[in-house]
Amino acid sequence: xxxxxxxxxxxxxxxxxxxxxxxxxxxxxxxxxxxxxxxxxxxxxxxxxxxxxxxxxxxxxxxxxxxxxxxxxxxxxxxxxxxxxxxxxxxxxxxxxxxxxxxxxxxxxxxxxxxxxxxxxxxxxxxxxx
Length: 130
Fold this sequence. Notes:
Layout: H1 2-35, H2 42-60, E1 64-65, E2 71-72, H3 79-97, H4 103-120, H5 125-129
Antiparallel strand pairs: 1-2
Helix pairs in contact: 2-4, 3-4
């Protein structure tokens, strides 16, 4: 009889504590979601930073040593083509900084620029203008 009485007292108490903890956690989660609602996605921002760094390295020539031992630096292309790409990158960066581009659009345009830079390596300046 004592064990039944003990169970009748402990079960509702445990249930009450579990429900109280659950509601407390739900409030914390809702607060975090509300606070981070307007923050741009962190991984997209990181990917954009890496693309921008890669473009700067290829166009301006900050030579670095990658983990596997290969050098990454300024690519060997026609100087006129390099200047055109630098101007495009500057305009793209200033548009993003002015708020004219979203992070997603900025990231996709940087991806396009990286593809363009990789294609320009094998072209002459006359082929780029056409």
